[in-house]
Amino acid sequence: MSLSCNRFSIIDDEDDVLQSYRMALLLAKFDNFVLCNDSTKAMKLLKQNEYSAIILDLTMPDISGQELLVKIKEYNPDIPVTVVTGSNRVNTAVECMKNGAYDYMVKPVDENRLISGLRNAIELGELRKENLALKTGIMGAALNSPDAFSGIITVSENMRGIFRYIEAIAASPRPVLITGESGTGKELFGRAIHAASKRTGKFIAVNVGGLDDMLFSDTLFGHRKGAFTGADGERGGLIEQAAGGTLFLDEIGVLEKNSQVKLLRLLQDCEYYPLGSDIVKTTDAVIVAATNENLDLRIKEGTFRNDLYFRLNTHHIHLPALRERPDDIPVLAAKLALDAAKSLGKKCPEIGPDVLTRLRNYSFPGNVRELQSMVFDAVARCDKLTLDASYFPALKPPKQNKSERNVSIFYTGSLPQLVDVEEFFISEAMRITNGNQTEAAALLGISQSTLSRRGKNRT
Questions:
Q1: Which domain holds residue 444?
Q2: Which residue among 254, 280, 383, 402 has the highest number of C-beta atoms inside a 10 angstrom radius?
Q3: Same domain, 199 and 54
Q4: Domain containing residue 261: CATH number
Q5: Rounded to 5 degrees, what are φ and ψ at 25?
Q6: 165 and 259 inside one domain
Q7: How far apart are CA 2 and CA 30, in angstroms?
Q8: Are 68 and 104 within one domain?
Q9: Has residue 148 been placed in a domain?
C-alpha cells in the first residue's frame, strides 16, 4: 500500500500553519494532499473527492472544528479525522473522541508526530476501504475450506456469508474483532478463523475481562525472574505460546485502561515487554478479539480507547443472535440433543413438533448457549421416545385465568358467527405452521385430535 498515493486534507484557518505542514509533508514524500483555510468550504471539498484521512484544526471562525468534525462523521463515519488544537484540556480531547475523532494532537505539532499519525490514519482509512470491498465481493463465493466451519451448525445464508468473509480475511496478519451477544459462539468463530488461516501455530484463548493490569501483562507477556514477589523464574506469556498462530482475547470490551495502552502497542508494532524486562520482544501471532459490549457506547463514556477500537476493527465480524436465525433452531436443537444423548449414554429422543414451534418463537436471551443447556437438561430428564413441552419449562406459556387473558379482536359490520371465527383461527394457525396440525394445535391450545376433528367438520 503506497501511502503517498492516498489523498488527504488538512483544514486550518492559519496560512502559516498550513505552509509549515506543507513543507513537512513534502519532505516526508507526501504529495497527494489538499490544504483548506476556510471551514465553510470544507464539506464541499470533501464531497468533491474521496479522502483517506483528514487533519482538522478545532479553533476556526465561521464553523468551528468541533462542528465540522460532527458533520464529517455524519457524512462519512469511516474517514479517520485527526484533531489539532492549541488547547491541552482533557475534556476537549474526550469530547472530540466521543464525536468520532481518530487522534488528538496539541499545537505546536512535532513534525515526526504529525507524519507518523498521518501514516497510521491513512493506513486505517485504506484498510477500511479494502474491508468494505472484500465484504461486497465475496457474498456469492463458494467455501474453499468447509472443514474449518464443521463445528458450526447452520442452514442460514447469512451465516454462510460470514464463513466466506472469514475465508477471505483468514490469511491477513491484521486483528479481527468479533462482536455479538453473549452465547452466540464468538470463540467458536475465532477457532474457525484460525483453522481457515492454515497457521501452523496454536490457537490460544484467554478471557481478559477479569484481569487487572499486572495480571493482564503477566498472562499475555510473561515475566522475568524477580519481576515481582513470587516470580522465582522466567515465564513466557500466552502471546509467546501463540507464536505463528492465533491469540483469542475474549471480553475485550471491559479491559482496563492501562492494559488497553499495552494492547494498542502490541497491535501497532507487534512488540511487547515481559514484566521486569527492558528488552523488547516481537510476535507474529494474529490477535482475534471478542466482546458482547457496545464499544461505541464505551468510547463515548470514555472507558474504551478510540484508537484501540480502530486497530481492533480492521476486520469485523458481527454474529447474529439466535432469534435472528430461526431456521437454524431445529437443526441446532437436533444436533444438541444427539450430543447430549451420547454424553449421557442413552438413546436420543426425537424433538416433538410442538417443542420446535415454541423454540422458534422463544427469544433466547442466552442464544446458542441457552439452547444447549435447555436441550441437555431435557434429554437428561427424558424417559420417553419424544421430547415434549413438559421437558422445557422455559417454553411453557404462562398460566392465566380466563379473566386475566388480554385478547382483543376487531371486526367491522355485523358480529361474526362463532363458526366463522373458529374457521379463521384454524386457517391462520395452519398457515403459520405450514400445514403442520400438531404445531397448529399447540398454537391454538387444543389437542391435535380435536383440531383434526374440527378440520373434518369444516370440510
A1: 404-458
A2: 254
A3: no
A4: 3.40.50.300
A5: -70, -40
A6: yes
A7: 10
A8: yes
A9: no
Length of the chain: 459
Say how many C-beta atoms besides its own lie within 10 A of residue 295's C-beta: 20
Asked if 309 and 332 sit in the same domain, the reply is no
Same domain, 307 and 334: no
All 3 cell numbers of residue 391? 421437558
- Would 146 be classed as within a structural domain? no
Q: What does the pLDDT read at residue 133? A: 56
**For residue 412, what is the domain's CATH number?**
1.10.10.60
Ordered mean pLDDT values, 10 residues apiece, the chain (459 residues) = 62 87 86 86 84 86 87 85 79 78 83 82 72 55 83 90 91 94 95 95 94 92 85 88 96 94 92 90 95 92 90 93 92 94 94 86 92 96 90 69 56 74 83 75 77 68
Task: Tell me which long-range contacts 111-120 makes (C-beta under 8 A, separation of at least 24).
Answer: 111/24, 114/21, 114/24, 114/55, 115/24, 115/25, 115/28, 115/30, 117/82, 118/8, 118/25, 118/30, 118/53, 118/55, 118/82, 119/3, 120/268
- Phi first, then psi: give them for residue 351, nearest 5 degrees: -95, 120
Please report the pLDDT score of residue 450 as a whole number. 80
CA nearest neighbour of 167 among 184, 147, 144: 144
How far apart CA 51 and CA 299 sit, in angstroms, is: 24
Same domain as 75, residue 58? yes
DSSP annotation of 295 reads H
Q: What is the pTM of this model?
A: 0.65
pLDDT at 140: 52
pLDDT at 247: 97
If we measure between CA atoms, which residue out of 209, 178, 188, 181 comes closest to residue 366? Answer: 181
The grid coordinates listed for 111 are: 513534525
Q: Are 375 and 425 in contact (CB under 8 A)?
A: no
SS (H, E, C) 376-408: HHHHHHCCCCEECHHHCHHHCCCCCCHHHCCCC
Is 312 found in the same domain as 190?
yes
Domain boundary among 363, 395, 427: 395
Q: What are the grid coordinates assigned to 274, written together?
A: 515481559
The overall longest dimension of the chain from CA atoms, in Å, is 91
What's the number of CA atoms in the CB half-sphere (13 Å) around residue 320?
17
Q: According to DSSP H, which parts of 138-237 are helical?
A: 157-169, 186-197, 213-221
Number of domains in the chain: 4
Q: Which class for 301: exposed (0-12), middle (13-18), buried (19 or more C-beta within 10 A)?
A: exposed
Same domain, 314 and 347: no
Whether 454 maps to a domain, the answer reads yes
Kindly report the CATH number assigned to the domain that includes residue 350.
Answer: 1.10.8.60
pLDDT at 369: 94
Cα(43)–Cα(431) distance, integer angstroms: 53
Question: Cell match 426425537: residue?
Answer: 350
Residue 31 belongs to some domain of the structure: yes
